[in-house]
Amino acid sequence: MFGRKSTKKKNNRIINENFRNLFNEIIYVKPDRKTRKHLREMLNFMGKGDGFLAYGFIDDDSGFNFRLLCSASVKNGMMTMGKFDDTGFLAVHRRVLDHCEFMVIDNFQVDTSHLSKEIKMINKTYSCVDPKIQKMREKKIMDEFRSREHPDDIRVDLYNDQIGVELVWVRCCDSSGQDFTGRLINEPYKNFGVHKGDMIEFSIVRSEGELVSIGVI
Description:
Blueprint: E1 12-13, E2 26-30, H1 33-38, E3 51-59, E4 63-75, E5 78-84, E6 91-93, E7 101-104, H2 116-125, H3 131-137, E8 153-160, E9 164-176, E10 179-184, E11 199-207, E12 210-216
Parallel strand pairs: 8-12
Antiparallel strand pairs: 1-7, 2-3, 2-7, 3-4, 4-5, 4-6, 8-9, 9-10, 10-11, 11-12
């Protein structure tokens, strides 16, 4: 739906990846030592596997998350999968896996049909019910301003002739062309006359050859 970007790399770190390559996709994750330690109890299902399969989804409130599906190992370019973990809904926020390497499942000839029921359940539970937000998520022009942790959160430069510029974060909820509306999710340090929770308007425009996200107050 969102048009996954192509990438020449077979593996990469999650922190560097556009959300479009991870959303509604099954990926193989190889946790680094720090992540293994942090998720020690949650990763018990891995057993002797060197990694696991995970499915990316967006929770409207908490942002981008991964459902941990089953253990997996990769050796000599071949993947073996463990049993689907049905003991509970094991999920972690994207930031927890930021420094882990991953590979898209398309790189391997594996049958993931046994996961289809769980995938359908996730898609149904976390489907975006607001068509305005859905439309906003599809706008690639916003990607360089999106938060990695929540694709609906947009980096905006508030601007006022008298006060100057301050970077803020806005949870976008509507769009029209390159004009957007969203809720301010942090309190500005400067006195722009707007506060956390207020709705503001902003635009993405080209300035001196570069795209900028700006809200004029």
